[in-house]
Amino acid sequence: MPPPITICIAARDEETKIRPALQSAKACSWCDELLVFDSGSTDRTVEIARAFTDRVEFHEWVSYSASKKNMTMAAKNDWVFILDADEQITPELAAEIAALPDDAFEAHPVFIMPRKNYVLGRHVRAWGPDHQNRLIDRTRVHWPERAVHDERLPTEGTVGRLRGALLHNAHVDEWSDYFEGERYAARTEVLAAEMYRQGKRTGPINLLLRPWITFIKFYFVKLGFLDGAFGVMIAQKAAFSVQLKYARLWHMQQRGGPDA
C-alpha cells in the first residue's frame, strides 16, 4: 500500500484544461491531499479547482524548477505526485501505483512513467515514450535548474519505472495547441539563454542543418510517417522549434548575451 501522497498541480489560466486533471487526481485511491498552486489566473481556473479541493494557493511564478519545488514543499506529505494542469493520470497508472509494495517506495525515491501527448486531438506517436519523473519523495531528491523542463533526480536509491501513462492534452483540439506564437517566442528565448550561459554558440551549419536533422528524426526515426499528413506537421513543428531556438541564440551572440 502506498504511503500518503499529495498530488500537486501548478496552474495559470487553465480553465479549459484543468478539470480532467482534477478529476483524474480525485479518482486516485492513494491521493491523500490535492494541492493546486495558482500563479495568477484571470479566468475560472481557481473557481474550478476549489470545487475539487480546499487547498488552492497563490504563489508567484519563479521558474519551472523553483516554482514546482516550492509547490512540493508546501504539501503535507513527503511523497508527492506532480501533475500539470493539462495532464491526466490514467486509471492504469493509478492502479499500478496503488499496487506498489512498501519496499519499492524505500528503494526508489523517484518513479518515472511514460506520457502520451496529444496535438489537435490526436496522439503524437513521434513524441513517445516521453518519460516523466513525477512521483517523488521530496526528502530524497534534488532539483537541477532547467530553463523549461523541470526535473527531479534521486540523492539516494534508484529510479523506479512505471508502465502506466500520463495523458497530456488528451481532450484538447485547438489550433493554439499546435502553434502559439507568444508561447514559441517565450520558450525559445529561455532555451537559447540557457544554451548561451552554458557556453554554446551557433553559426551557419547549425542554422542550416539542425532543423533538417530534427525533421528526419521525428518523421523517419520516430515513425511520424505512419501518421500521414499529421506526422509531417509534427516533424515540421519540431524542426521549426529548433530553427527558432538557434536563430535566437545567434541573435544573442550578436548582441553580446541574453541580457544585453
What is shown here, in short?
With 260 residues, the chain is of the alpha/beta class. It has helices at residues 18-26, 45-50, 64-73, 91-98, 102-107, 175-178, 181-197, 204-221, 228-255, and strands at 5-11, 31-38, 55-58, 79-84, 87-89, 110-113, 115-119, 122-123, 132-137, 141-142, 153-154, 159-161, 166-168.
Name its key features.
Spore Coat Polysaccharide Biosynthesis Protein SpsA, Chain A, alpha/beta, about 260 residues, 7-stranded mixed sheet, 2 domains, about 40% helix, single chain, 4-stranded mixed sheet, 13 strands
Based on Cα principal axes, name the global outline.
globular
Residue share in helix: 40-55%
Supply the CATH architecture of the largest domain.
Answer: Alpha-Beta Complex
Percentage of β-strand residues:
15-25%
* Number of separate domains: 2
- Major beta sheet summary: 7 strands, mixed
Which value, in Å, is the CA radius of gyration?
19 Å
CATH topology of the largest domain: Spore Coat Polysaccharide Biosynthesis Protein SpsA, Chain A
Number of helices: 9
- The CATH superfamily of the largest domain turns out to be Spore Coat Polysaccharide Biosynthesis Protein SpsA, Chain A
Strand ordering within the main sheet:
3-2-1-4-9-6-12
| Contiguous runs where pLDDT drops below 50 for at least 5 residues | none
CATH class assignment of the largest domain: Alpha Beta
Q: What is the H-and-E element order?
A: EHEHEHEEHHEEEEEEEEHHHH
**Quick one: how many beta strands?**
13
